[in-house]
Structures are given as C-alpha cells and as structure tokens.
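Consider the following assembly input.
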Amino acid sequence: MENILVTGGAGFIGCNFVRYILKNEPDVQVTVYDKLTYAGRLENLANLKESYGRRYHFIQGDICDAAKVEETVTASDIDTIINFAAETHVDRSILDPDAFVKTDVYGTYVLLEAARKFGNLRFHQISTDEVYGHIEGQRRSVEGDGLDPRSPYSASKASAELFVNAYNITYGLPVTISRGANNIGPYQYPEKVVPLFITNALASMQLPVYGDGQQMRDYQYVTDHCAAIHLILRRGRIGEAYNVGTGSEMTNLAMVEILLDELGRPRSLIQHVEDRLGHDRRYSLDVAKIMALGWEPDHTPEEAIRATARWYRENSWWWQPIRDGEFQDYYQTVYGDRKALDLPR
Ligand code: NAD
Ligand code: DAU
C-alpha cells in the first residue's frame, strides 16, 4: 500500500481529490491532514470511513506545526505528500494577508522539510494560474513563463512554488507542481464567486459583480482538475510544473448569465459593485503540456457552471448552515458598504 498525505483534504478541491483517488486507486491509503479553518469541513468527508475503512484516516493539524507534521508522516508511514492546504480566497487576502503568508508560504516550507527529512518523499504542490498575474491580449501562459503575482494570495502561492523548486534543485526532492484555473463544483465554500452567486440567486439576493464584469476566467469542473493532479502524480516529470484548465475562458458576466439561466432566475439580480483592489483582468492557460500527458477535461466551462448550479440547488443541507453562520459577518465586511455602480448594460 502507498500512503499518501493529503493536506487541506477537508477543503473544496482536497475532499473531491480524496474521493477521486480512493475510488480509482485501490492500493492507496489516504491520510487527510487539515486544520479545519472556516473552509475545512468534516461533512465534506462524510461516509469515507464507512466506504473505505482503514484506507482513510483523518488528522486535525496545522501544516505550520512541524512537530505534528513530522509525527503524522512517521506514524502513517507516508510515501507521498500532496499539498492542498492553503488560505485561498483573494478577497480575504486583501483584508488581511497574515494567514496567507503563514500557511501558504511557511506551511509549505514545513511540509518540504518533513519530506526531505524522512527520505525525500514524493511531493506535489497544488498551485494556481494566479501566479502568472494578469495576461494581456490574446496571449496564454505557458509553464516556462515568469511568475508575476499581484495579490497577497497569489504572491504567497508563487513564493511557495519557489521553495518547492528550491527543494528539488538543492536537495533532489522529487516534486511536481500543478497550476489550476478556477475550480467549481460540489463543496466549494460559498465565498467564491460561482457558489456565492448561485446561493444568492436561490435566495433572490443581488449578485455583486465586481466592476464591469468583463474579467476573464477559465471555470473548470473540480473532478477534471482532480484527474489531472492524479495523472501528474503518476506520469508527470519530476521538477516540472503543469497548467490545468479547459483552455477556454469567459467573462464573469457570461458566467453569471449561464447560472441564472440554469436556475431560471432573472438578469435583474445582477448588480455591478465597486471593483476588487488590484483585480487581475484575465488569466489564460496554455494546457498543451498536461494534454500531452493524456488528460482532457470532461466538462466545458458552461457544462461545469450548469452542473454546479444544479448541485447547489439540490444540496442546501450543505451550504445553508454555512451561510447562516460566520459567513454573515464576512459578507457584511466585504459587501455591506460596497458602492453599487450604475453601468450601462
Ligand atoms: P479551500 O479554501 O476550500 O480549502 C483549503 C483547506 O486547507 C481547508 O480544508 C482548510 O481547513 C485547510 N487549511 C488551511 N490552512 C491550513 C493549515 N494551516 N494547516 C492545515 N490545513 C489548512 O481551498 P480549495 O479551493 O480547495 O483550494 C485547495 C488548493 O488548491 C489551494 O492550495 C489553492 O491555492 C489551490 N487552487 C484552488 C483553486 C480554486 O479555484 N479553488 C484553483 C487553483 C488552485
Ligand atoms: O484562478 C484560480 C484561483 O481561482 C484560485 O487560485 C483561488 O484560490 C480561487 O479563489 C479563485 O480565485 P478568483 O479570485 O479568480 O476567484 P473568485 O471566485 O473570488 O472570483 C472569480 C471572479 O469573480 C474574479 O474575477 C472576481 C469576480 N467576483 C468575485 C466575487 C467573490 C465578483 O465579480 N464578485 C464577487 O462577489
């Protein structure tokens, strides 16, 4: 049995990945290591113990806690670390970058040290297309491009990548990196735009579109991203980074219109509001390298948005308690005093 440590496995992409790998690799045991921040939820991992028994373990812990990380790596006899754990929301990084530097940068360093100390374990870092920064014109980012992060979140993710590379070059740690575009699908905390807008629309609340809504994003379905991570783990070249996305982006306004249509809600719910500080207008990935490994997405961005809207419509048991809790304070902080814009449509 191979023992894989999945940090951040109680979060959105992590929990989807844990389900994916347990289902597709019968000879793998998974230990989820997660601090359970506001974004990490045990209900995301419900039924895994019943379904997979001893192949699945959960440990609550912080990736910044070197002693606990080392204890976990030795006690679970870990061969491979996949690092999903991070602070992930750009708006929260603008409000307060502190936790981003601690978890995303220092926490990654702690995991790399543990991987080095216990026999140069295989290490995969989950990164983001945001490390490339805003992309002008028709250009697409290729993996050899320089990193040009522009938000505290993306700066922390880019810093983590630099450490991952340094451990490969200096200590020979067998690392790979994936740079994913925007994921959507089941179990995404409703602060991110797609679940936020779906759950607002279901409550007949306004959808706060930042600025003119012409920003471009590549909305990929989370299980497609999970399949790509799995492939990189098995067939990726050590020391390399891989872009992961559909390779096809759309404006935020187009995304909003698709989800409103799917839910049968009116366009009048769209409300333009004051823009995000330092907002990147466009991300755009060249995905030829991951496709050459034998991957392609099962969903177009439009299919991904529609499937996500249906999941949230059918699973209010999951998101309603979140929206009724701490989320309300967060919502008030970010949107309470935000100026509405009167833009021609
Ligand atoms: P998420 O916010 O839903 O989950 C993050 C998880 O990390 C949570 O379970 C949280 O409890 C855990 N965590 C946070 N700090 C921790 C710490 N100090 N120690 C241990 N656990 C901690 O995030 P997500 O959207 O699932 O993103 C997962 C990874 O994928 C992140 O590294 C993110 O940067 C990257 N990523 C996300 C997207 C996206 O669109 N969501 C796209 C590309 C890359
Ligand atoms: O690109 C990958 C990244 O995607 C990940 O690395 C991040 O972890 C993830 O949070 C996501 O970042 P974004 O900033 O792109 O996602 P978000 O859902 O916050 O916003 C998507 C777009 O929607 C962006 O252009 C901002 C806009 N937006 C967002 C919110 C929350 C709005 O117009 N209104 C909103 O209320």
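DSSP finds 13 helices and 13 strands in the chain. Ask yourself how this observation constrains the way the partners meet.
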